[in-house]
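Hi support team,

I've been running sequence recovery on a batch of backbones for a student project. Most finish fine, but this one hangs at about 90% for roughly twenty minutes before it completes. I'm not sure whether the input is malformed or the queue is just slow. I've pasted the C-alpha cells below so you can try to reproduce it. Let me know if you need the job ID as well.

Thanks,
M.K.
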C-alpha cells in the first residue's frame, strides 16, 4: 500500500464497555486491550507503519477511575514491561522496537515507573520501529508545562517560536501523527496531542478497541492513503 502514514496515533477506547457488555469487570477489557495493542503493531509492521503512539491512560482517567480498576491497570502494565525487560523473545526485541513513555509519569507507582524506565533504556538502540506510550497524559497540561518551561528560560517573550515550543513538549523527538484513529464510537480527541494533531487526519471506528478487526484497521489506512492533505493551505 502506498501513502501509509509515517506516524500513527491511536485512542484505544472501549475496553471497559466491551467488558461491561459481557457483564465482566472492567479490567478484563483492559487485559484484552493490552493484547490488541500487540496485534495492531503486527498489522502496522505488515503495512510499513513505523511510528506508533498509544493513549494508554489520561490524567482525567487517573483522577476519576476507581482505585481498584487503576490497580488492575497498573498490574497489566507491570506484567507487560517486565516481559520486555526479561524476555528477549518479546516482539519488542524481535522487531527492534524502541519504546518511549511520556506524560506525568511521577503520578504512577514507583515500581511501575522503574519497569518503564528499564524498558525505555533497554530499547534505546532499536530503530526499526517506535512505540510511544502516553501515560498519565493530558494535552492541555502538556502545553501549559511547556509554556512554563519557556517562560523560565526566555528573557524575551518575542523570541519564543513554534519550534521552541515543540521542543519543550513531552513528545519532543516524536513525529506529529499523520493519522489518529479512535475506536469505541466517540468522535473527539479527549485532550490527546492537541498541539501535535493540528494537521492530523482523523478516523473514527465504532467497534470497541478489543473488537477491532484487521479489515477495519486496513480500511482506515486505505482511506487515509486516498485523502489529499493540504496542511491548512
Amino acid at each position: 500500500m502506498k501513502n501509509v502514514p509515517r506516524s500513527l496515533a491511536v485512542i484505544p477506547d472501549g475496553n471497559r464497555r466491551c467488558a461491561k457488555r459481557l457483564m465482566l469487570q472492567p479490567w478484563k477489557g483492559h487485559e484484552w486491550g493490552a493484547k490488541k495493542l500487540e496485534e495492531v503493531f503486527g498489522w502496522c509492521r505488515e503495512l510499513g507503519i513505523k511510528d506508533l503512539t498509544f493513549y494508554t491512560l489520561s490524567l482525567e482517567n487517573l483522577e476519576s477511575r476507581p482505585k481498584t480498576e487503576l490497580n488492575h491497570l497498573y498490574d497489566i502494565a507491570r506484567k507487560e514491561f517486565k516481559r520486555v525487560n526479561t524476555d528477549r523473545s518479546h516482539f519488542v526485541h524481535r522487531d527492534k522496537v524502541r519504546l518511549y513513555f511520556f506524560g506525568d509519569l511521577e503520578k504512577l507507582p514507583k515500581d511501575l515507573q522503574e519497569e518503564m524506565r528499564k524498558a525505555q533504556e533497554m530499547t534505546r538502540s532499536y530503530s526499526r520501529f517506535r512505540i510511544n506510550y502516553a501515560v498519565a497524559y493530558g494535552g492541555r497540561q502538556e502545553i501549559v508545562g511547556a509554556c512554563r518551561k519557556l517562560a523560565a528560560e526566555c528573557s524575551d517573550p518575542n523570541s519564543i517560536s513554534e519550534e521552541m515550543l515543540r521542543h519543550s513538549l513531552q513528545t519532543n523527538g516524536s513525529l506529529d501523527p499523520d493519522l489518529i484513529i479512535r475506536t469505541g464510537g466517540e468522535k473527539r480527541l479527549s485532550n490527546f496531542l492537541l498541539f501535535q494533531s493540528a494537521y492530523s487526519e482523523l478516523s473514527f471506528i465504532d467497534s470497541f478497541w478489543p473488537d477491532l478487526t484487521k479489515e477495519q484497521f486496513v480500511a482506515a489506512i486505505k482511506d487515509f492513503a486516498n485523502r489529499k492533505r493540504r496542511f491548512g493551505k
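--
Follow-up from support: It reproduced on our side and the slowdown came from queue contention, not your input. The chain has a mean pLDDT of 95. No action needed from you.
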